[in-house]
Design goal:
This protein has about 210 residues and is an alpha/beta fold. About 30% of the residues lie in helices and about 20% in strands.
Length: about 210
Amino acid sequence: MQWVDVDGSRVRVLRTDTESEGPPLLLINGMAARLEMWQPLCSAITDRPLLMFDFPGITGRPARDLPLEMPGLARWLGRPLDALDVESADVLGYSWGGVLAQQFARDTSERVRALVLASTNFGFGGVYSVGGYQRQIISLTGWTSLPWLQELTVSTLVVAGDDDPYVPSSTTRRLAQSIPRARLELIPGGGHLLPINQPNRLAQAIDDFLR
């Protein structure tokens, strides 16, 4: 565990090292979640380096000028990677983190080797409510990726549980169908908390895809 200063924000970061080569798998948390949410999944992924962080304000100190909108947050996301000397990564975005991952892959595709979108959506909007949680809510206001998903060139896996009460399977299918050559995987009986409740099955889906 370490702390990294990023443009005036204090960011808590966890990086695991393995003997395997290649880019790390960057894990982007769900809304208001801390990096501890990944512990079950991290226990199931043992053969690749992992990198995860807390959104400023969830822990640490957010800078006053930390962006509120999703494109700005995607630009900001590159700064912790720069601070850690990570040029590119495989990216796993979960729930709200999957929204940020979509924007990051669109805007900085050269830094994303492969993209995994877990239990996420293509847009929310109409949410109005500043700490870390409020910033995450505000970032969703009016945001949608549907107009540009067909422009994504990054290899993408869309994975979700087929019993997710927050993201219907019809939404997951539409997300996958909107991304060129995306792979879709629905985990039977899986709910919304795949990294916590279905870590082994999620890890297997990720491993099969990245290999």
